[in-house]
Amino acid sequence: MQLIDLPDFVRRYYSGEEFVLFDTETTGLNTFHDDILEIGASVWSKDGLKDSFQELIQISPNRISLEAWQVHKIPLEEIAKARLPKAVLEDFVSFCQNRTLLAHNIRFDFPMLNSNLIRHGMRPYQNDQVACSLAFAKDRLKPGKLSELAQHYGIESKKGELHRALYDVELLAKVMGRMMKENEPEQMQYSLIL
Fold first, then answer.
1. Which run of H or of E encompasses 180?
2. Domain encompassing residue 38
3. In this structure, what DSSP letter does residue 125 have?
4. Which one of 10, 23, 139, 179 has the lowest number of neighbouring Cβ atoms within 10 Å?
């Protein structure tokens, strides 16, 4: 996993690169043994959000730790009706098209994704250059939690919606938009004045 630093990310963002913002909800915190039970993602660039992906994954309810369930509270009956892991993960990888992934805590989400891919007979995600909004925030001495970072930027978040994968991705896109604006290259700021 190669973590992209903020200056490089800003350069790539303003050059028009597309990224995939993604989030996982899981059965626990062990990236080697726990399962993804919901994955959400959106293609994002300086033009905003484009396509989105969200899907629950069928996991045996006894694999979900109480602590994890108390965070995301995804109804067990919805999980029981979801598609099997391999099919969802294949569709997710296809959706990403090997773009650079960005998550709010990539050090959790990326290893979780790869261990789930491997466990279901697939190769790890091929693009190991990743970005982390949590690392960007910490570098700039900003709050660490996504909801607190959103609040820092004046973005409202709905408490009952947090910790659902696609909602968190959409909130992350708003946060990243503000973060990119405050890190806009000087030559771009100057060119807007002319």
1. helix 165-182
2. 2-193
3. P
4. 139
